[in-house]
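Hi P.,

Sorry for the delay on this. The queue was packed all week, but I finally got your sequence through. Input first:
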Amino acid sequence: MSKESKAFNVQHLDIAAFAQGEHTLQGQTPLAAYPRFAEEVLGDPAAESVTWHAQGQWQAQTGGAGHAWLVLEVHTQATLTCQRCLQPVEVPLEVQRDFRFVKDEATAQAQDDDSEEDLLVMSRDFDLQTLIEDELLMALPLVPQHGICPQPLAFDDAAAHVEDAPEKPHPFAALAQLRKAGGSAD
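Then the structure:
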């Protein structure tokens, strides 16, 4: 059963209470609220927004206390520089991740190698907004580019100039001439 609650603060989230109550938080936040991500994109961060949805889940464990989970979905449109034509390109970014919370950093490190799950440390003061920003940064493409660039690519005419240039003599041509002129002394 999912409950929607405004009692939770996205920058100071009590993960255990959020997950045990299976609460939901969602919002549409201006891009300017994510300053590290805003540095990576073109355009006005105040005019763009990030839509997100966070769902807490509690999974009971036989003989144990259970596990807190956070299901996160994030959507936005990022304007980046196409690395082929150097023009702006709109790139849709979507994040869908599930995080399991563990009691401390030592537990997270011990379980990290054997776990296929994304592990985070339990907190009563968890910053969901920073997690959203981190996930957006990791979702950025390494080489953003258009499928087909809207303008023809501008190439440097250097290759054409090389073909028109007079042919330069081979740097060792003088040695070859000396060898021929001196005869075969070997």
